[in-house]
């Protein structure tokens, strides 16, 4: 097996272990392999290993790869900060957008076409540059998503802060998710957990993991 195949299998085993530890079914957890900065050939290799869900954080790169690999029928997850003027273009190839973080982006995604799955990203730090909506403004943004045609709210997304343990941070997301469920009972998914903290995320209820380097190896330098 290739290095990629081994790393993928190791992460899948880690996901299964954490699910067992949490008393959950591994089948209820979707592992999105984050392929940013890697060439389309790597995504093709992942698909050959059975990967169906891939994540990208830059529109131009994602659009190009999705077009090149269209015949594979993969689910492309957009996980990066998104400019409003690019929103409509992302709708065209993405299965889900994980980074809804402000009202202007919600408005830009309004559409009469089939709904796209989306997650509202919560900022767990005090630094607005880290992306995501502040918890105080969460309910209002969720209500805006719910009132916007063309968007299907799945739940919340978050990135653990760098300067504190991941597990209590993920527990905060789970608590916020209870609040969201009062507004949208079906929006209970949690997109959280990366290469170094996916076990903690699974223990706190993650349904969508976004795992890059643990599977792909180190990323090439940004182009
Ligand atoms: C790059 C990225 C990931 C994956 O990070 P790894 O540490 O490589 O697993 C997950 N989520 C977001 C938002 C990212 O930008």
From TrEMBL:
PROSITE patterns: UPF0001 (PS01211)
Transmembrane segments: none
Domain Alanine racemase N-terminal: residue ranges: 31-220
Iron among keywords: no
Keyword Protein biosynthesis: no
CDD domains on file: PLPDE_III_YBL036c_like (cd00635)
Modified residues (N6-(pyridoxal phosphate)lysine): 36
Pfam families the UniProt entry points to: Ala_racemase_N
Record's keyword terms, sorted: Pyridoxal phosphate
InterPro entries: Ala_racemase_N, PLP-binding_barrel, PyrdxlP_homeostasis
Function: Pyridoxal 5'-phosphate (PLP)-binding protein, which is involved in PLP homeostasis.
PANTHER family, alphabetized: PROLINE SYNTHETASE CO-TRANSCRIBED BACTERIAL HOMOLOG PROTEIN, PYRIDOXAL PHOSPHATE HOMEOSTASIS PROTEIN
Family according to the record: Belongs to the pyridoxal phosphate-binding protein YggS/PROSC family.
Name of this protein: Pyridoxal phosphate homeostasis protein
């Amino acid at each position: 097996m290739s290095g990629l195949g081994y790393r993928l299998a190791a992460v899948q085993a880690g996901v299964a272990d954490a699910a067992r530890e949490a008393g959950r079914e591994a089948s209820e957890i979707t592992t999105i392999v984050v392929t940013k900065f890697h060439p389309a050939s790597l995504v093709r290799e992942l698909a050959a290993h059975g990967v169906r869900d891939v994540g990208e954080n830059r529109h131009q790169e994602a659009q190009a790869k999705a077009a090149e690999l269209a015949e594979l029928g993969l689910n492309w997850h957009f996980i990066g900060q998104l400019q409003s003027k690019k929103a409509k273009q992302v709708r065209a190839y993405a299965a889900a957008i994980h980074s809804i973080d402000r009202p202007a982006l919600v408005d830009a995604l309004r559409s009469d076409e089939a709904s796209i799955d989306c997650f509202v990203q919560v900022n767990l730090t005090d630094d607005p540059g880290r992306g995501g909506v502040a918890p105080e403004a969460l309910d209002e943004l969720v209500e805006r998503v719910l009132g916007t045609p063309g968007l299907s709210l799945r739940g919340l997304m978050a990135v653990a802060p760098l300067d504190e343990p991941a597990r209590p941070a993920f527990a905060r997301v789970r608590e916020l998710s209870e609040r969201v469920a009062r507004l949208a009972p079906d929006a209970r998914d949690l997109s959280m957990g990366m290469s170094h903290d996916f076990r903690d995320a699974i223990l706190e209820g993650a349904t969508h993991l976004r795992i890059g380097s643990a599977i792909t190896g180190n990323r090439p330098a940004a182009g």
